[in-house]
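Changelog note: in this version the structure field was regenerated for every chain. One regenerated record is shown below for reference.
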Amino acid sequence: MEKAGYLLLKRIHIENANAISSPITYGFPAVTGFLGAVHALSRRLHVVASAQKLALDGVLIACHDCRPQVYRQTPYSDYSFNQSRNPLLKSGKTASIVEEGKCHLSLSLGMELLAEKPICKDQGAQLALQVQEMLMQQRIAGGSVRGFGGHGFYRRESAHFFLPNDAWQMTKHLVPAFILMEAKKDLEALTAELQKNQPEATALDALIDLACLHHIPVEKNGSIGWQTRSAKTGRGWLVPMPLGYQGIAPAFAAGALANCRTDEYPAQYVESVYGLGKWVFPHRIDDITKAFWRYQHQAENDLYCVTQEER
């Protein structure tokens, strides 16, 4: 199958999505949550579209609004996630509270459409509406889809199809929003800058340094004040983010690992892999097709990652 075009679903309103993206990051769902939702759509689309083989591959994530469900008692207190009250048990006793982090989202998703033969604009438009309807029947990153568009939007105005050569037209449909991009070059530059004073520093040290605020004492007019410095100043909206998983033990054959979610596939113990992301305004991206996230598997390194590199 080859690339037949792009689907764009605008202003998807999601409620109670998972805001804990990894053991050490929170605030916005992990990229794998959106790739998983689109993969589920692709499997359903393959069954529904009996006339020819269709599939959804890369995913563009453009966030319009994100509101983590958090609370703090005073302006100087730490934030804590709002927790929901679970239904009572059959015995009538109070159920245990499973701590969770949730957020409400408004975002647009772009999806690469793969097909065996070219698709015309009319076919693509109908397909976009069909995918939109299927998306209403499932979850995204653990959250419930509550609707599309804003005030004055109609259903058809939220679903679009673009031919491969018209991908640039997606940009005008994504504003105002910020697109999540991979920031490898920024991380390399930060690592090189840190290594000037600390030759033994690694990319992990640079990532931790970027997440910190450095408070430096400054003397001015005979008095001591404080100056706050961040490594990401002047580099844009940089954010540490999980980029997938790495195996920490040999893989188990299908059905060999007890209490596994499914016995259909091999299973493996993994840990999170971290990198650097960047929120970018759509008009600052020269080629919008480079903003699509895809799965990447490196069997020799036991890596299961997401990337924006072309296959």
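Spot check on this record: The chain has a mean pLDDT of 90. Helices lie at 31-48, 121-135, 170-174, 184-195, 203-210.
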